[in-house]
Amino acid sequence: MVALVSRTGRHLQRYIKGRRQVVGCIPYRYRITNQGSLEDGEALEVLLISSQKGKSMLFPKGGWETDESKTEAALRETVEEAGVTGIVESELGKWSFKSKRNDTYCEAFMFPLLVKEELELWPEKNVRERKWVSVAEAREVCQHWWMKEALDRFVRRLTFLQQEEDLGLGPCSLSLEPKFNL
Asked: Mind listing the pLDDT tens digit for each residue in 45-65?
């Protein structure tokens, strides 16, 4: 069950050394063609949302509060702002930036989120639009430099994992036993 009201206020907001702690997700999915295979280059889609004033596009993000873990906060913000749920994957990194809106310094942590469900109703449906786009389009239109860096890091991770898979180097492929006889 998803709450249809966003958390508001800053009384639970987490600050470390005066920097507001922010978390966000890069919601993603793979587009399947009619042939049932991934389309080369355009198979990966990411979900962008409009800013509250509707003038720019970005990934869902918001404050990490004292009563939740980073991943819980990232998922909550994604549900509130983008209306999607799924699997929060391992952290992509930390970025520091100065917020234009509040003139404060922030530290942001970003996570990939493999989307499993798009909600018809979500807390910020009436103030935000959501749009599935290619990685190339996301790089063009995303308003924050640090989100673009997180996207690039995510794509590099996926590329590396794909290369490992292509070489047969999955997590269970490493063995302590030799593959040859002496």
From this structure: 999 999 988 789 999 999 999
Nearest C-alpha neighbor of 111 from the set 171, 64, 43: 64
The pTM for the full model equals 0.81
Please compute, for residue 154, the number of CA atoms within 13 A of its CA located in the half-sphere on the CB side: 28
Q: Kindly list the distances between the CA atom of residue 9 and the CA atoms of 18, 63, 127, in Å, as whole numbers in the listed order.
A: 17, 10, 17
Does residue 36 or residue 4 have the better pLDDT?
4
Nearest CA to 113 out of 27, 22, 49 is that of 27
Mean pLDDT over 63-82 rounds to 97
Number of neighbouring beta carbons within 10 Å of residue 106: 18
The predicted-structure confidence for 34-48, as pLDDT tens digits, reads as follows: 544 444 555 899 999
> Using CA atoms, how far apart are residues 141 and 21, in angstroms rounded to an integer?
24
Cα torsion 75, 79, 84, 85: sign: positive
Please, are residues 32 and 117 in contact by the beta-carbon 8 Å criterion? no
Q: How many CB atoms lie within 10 A of CB 85?
A: 18
Residue 94 gets the label, from left (phi > 0), alpha (psi -120 to 50) or beta, of beta
Q: What six digits make up the tokens of 3?
A: 């709450």
Run of H or E residues at 27: strand 19-30
Read off the amino acid at residue 160: F
